[in-house]
Design goal:
By secondary structure, the protein is an alpha+beta fold. 58% of the residues lie in helices and 22% in strands. The protein has a four-stranded antiparallel sheet with strand order 1-2-3-4.
Length: 153
């Protein structure tokens, strides 16, 4: 009987953890994930080149958003993926965020990346731990988009 109770508790805990992970993923990604996937459905070398140019030409805007675009990586698989590293350099106000988002509203990719950066920063604010600071946010654009965060002391 005790083994069954322990098993039920483990199952219940695993279910709760799974729900929390899904909640966190939705909180970080939301609608952006669907838009990135849609953008990469028709992937061609010209599309990849356009996105790379778009990100590179927006580096000053990313700096103003508090993140320095430090690396761009391309994975030439099927489908291709673009990965970008953003060094966290400062925190900006909500008003500054809203102003930047409205400034880039006509640029779908830059808007998506900027929203992902802000969501990564918001997530870090929720989980702050010890003396670790948000250091680098890596955003992968492709059919399986992702956000990775690196922390440093």
């Amino acid at each position: 009987m005790a083994a069954e109770a322990i098993l039920n508790k483990v199952i219940e805990t695993a279910s709760t953890i799974s729900e929390k992970v899904d909640e966190i993923k939705e909180d970080i990604w939301g609608e952006e994930q669907k838009l990135i996937i849609e953008e990469f459905r028709e992937s061609s070398s010209q599309k990849v080149k356009d996105i790379l140019n778009n990100l590179n030409n927006s580096s000053e805007l990313f700096d103003r958003a508090g993140f320095h675009l430090s690396n761009l990586n391309i994975s030439l698989g099927i489908p291709p993926e673009i990965s970008s590293d953003f060094k966290a350099i400062k925190i900006i106000t909500m008003e500054e965020r809203e102003s930047l988002i409205s400034e880039v509203a006509d640029n779908r990719i830059v808007t998506l990346v900027m929203k992902c950066l802000f969501k990564a920063n918001d997530f870090y604010d929720k989980i702050k731990f010890g003396t670790y600071k948000l250091d680098v946010v890596n955003i992968t654009l492709g059919l399986t988009p992702g956000i990775n965060m690196n922390f440093q002391r």
